[in-house]
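Hi W.,

Here's what went into the run:
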Amino acid sequence: MIKLYGFWRSLAAYRVRIALRLKNILFEETEVDLLAGAQFKPDFDALNPQHAVPVLEHEGQHLIQSLPIIEYLEERFPAHPLLPTDALGRARVRALAQIAASDVHPLIVPRVRNFLSAEMGLDEPQKLRFIQHWFGMGSAALEAKLAREAETGTCAHGDSVTMADVVLASHVVGARLFKTDLSNAPTLTALVDRCLAQPAFDPGRLTQGH
Amino acid sequence: MIKLYGFWRSLAAYRVRIALRLKNILFEETEVDLLAGAQFKPDFDALNPQHAVPVLEHEGQHLIQSLPIIEYLEERFPAHPLLPTDALGRARVRALAQIAASDVHPLIVPRVRNFLSAEMGLDEPQKLRFIQHWFGMGSAALEAKLAREAETGTCAHGDSVTMADVVLASHVVGARLFKTDLSNAPTLTALVDRCLAQPAFDPGRLTQGH
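Here's what came out:
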């Protein structure tokens, strides 16, 4: 049995959960209470010294980082593929995923928000502006690519769901949590809303707070 | 001919340059002067609406984001492989790469540093503390994984250079530019220093400023 160590409000764990569901892989989830500091306990540190979720347990091994986990699932469970078959298409899907997962999400996670207030003295309105700014920058770049490029279909790459849609869904869910203005990203929000209508993309309690 | 759009002080372009050299792929490089704002000009916006380097030009196509570019090079130019042959090994290499490329580097790039000073009012000592904090956090996580895990060899994964070493080299070069204390990461710095002794890892002018 595959086990996912996740947390209800983690956008990165949400990505892995979507991928597991899309691939019809049976899994159980263990909640790591990030608000209570469970990620710093020795048991969890042994699984992931980065003290973050998701962690995927498979065949006694523990894998970290959402995109490498999804790539691993793709290699070990090829049914319901989440990457195109051509190298150029895979590069595009991976790039769309990285824009959101690398250049936006790491800037707005709780550890960064806490550091900005506790150590840099930012107040809540400043932090919110910081968060909205980076969600906005990422959304603008994603929108430009999606709107311009012929590869975009009803999904981010063609008409089948890929890893790009998985990550873009986490991006838009996160942006909306922080009330980011996404009116300039209609292509992005339209394709994510089509995804969010599917059960595999159920964000669960993620939409309830941050 | 492959063309790399890069910039001398970009850690992400440095990664792609290393990968191209390790694979003995002939390429030419076009400098995009990020200090002069060349990334915002219409010509470059057409190549990458994210307004960042690297961009790789191959067979008339333009690819963005350093890790997807390296994965593409790996698929199209399989000689001198930069990923292990087993799925578990690939997942580990990709995870090590993401810790540095996703959870540290996007926090310290010029666009973020500029926003923190111009919009959030941070002074230079605060910005330096912010930068050193995240380089330190990432280095601690990397060190724990590298020191604990049996897969670590003379390189990050076994005794052959992989994408993990490529990204860890950019991480350590960046951390040193900002005078981050890396004394708690001896495994990390030792393996990167072995890499830096190889011509493919020449950081060029990167060590001259930031």
